[in-house]
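Q: Convert this sequence to C-alpha cells.
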Amino acid sequence: MSVKMLTYTNQNTPIHRLTGASKLLFFVLWALTAMIIYDTRCLLAMFVIAVVIFAVSRVPFKQYSFVLYLILIFFGLNQIAIFLFSPLYGVELYGTRHDIVHLFAWYTLTWEQLFYQFNVALKYAVVVPIGLLFLLVTDPSEFAASLNRIGVSYKVAYSVAIALRYIPDIQQDFQNISFSAQARGIDISRKEKFGKRLKNVVSILLPLILTSVERIEKISTAMELRGFGRGKKRTWYRARPLRKGDYIAIAMILIITVACLVITFADGSRFYNIFK
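A:
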C-alpha cells in the first residue's frame, strides 16, 4: 500500500487550484443533474466532459483503483438486479416492445430494457469520476471551510475534515497490523486460498478497529481540552477567496445544468425515447 488511496495530493493543475467552495458547488450540481435527467444525449456529453476533467487533474490511477473496482462490482450487481426484478421496465417506460431473445419463464431481453439500463450505466459513468475526483483534489481543511461558508455548522464541517484526513491513517494502521500478522505466519497474499485469505483479513480488522477507536478517543479528548465548540464561529486557515478559475468553473456547471434540463424536458419528459 505504498500509494495512499482516496487521499488528497497537492498538484499544480487547474482542477487542484480551484477553491473547495467551487468544487463543492460543481459536484453537487453535477450529481443532481445526472440523477434527474435520463436524456442519453446529455449523459453522453457529461461523460465526455467528466473524462476530460479527470484527465486534466492528472490523478494517478493507483489512488482510486481499488475503490473503482468495488464500484464496478456494485454496478454489475445493480444491473443484474434491475433485470431480474424488472425485466420489462424499459417496455413500460418507452411504450414499445422490440424483443431480442426470450431467455426463460417471463424473462425476455428487449431493446427497450437494454436502452434503459444503458442510461443507468451512463449515470454511474457520469457521477463516479467527478465524485472520486472531488475527494482526490480537495484539501480536507479547505473543504471544511467551504462547508462552513455555505452554512454548515463548523463542528460538522470540522468532523468531515477529520474523517477525510483519517483515511491515510487507517491505511497506514492496516499496513502495520498486516505486516505484524504476516510476521506471525498469517498470510493475506494471493498465494493463500481465497477463503483462508478472507479469514486472515478479518482477523486483522479487530485490532484495526480497536486502534481506530483509541485514536478517536485521543483526538476527541485533545479537542475538548482545547475548548473546541465553545464559540459560535471560527476562522479557517485554509479558506481562500474565489478567483477567476472558480468563477469559470461555476459558470460552466450552471450552463451544463441549465442546458441539460432544457434539452431533457423540451418534450415534457425526462426520458429520451429513441423508439418513437
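The chain has a mean pLDDT of 82.
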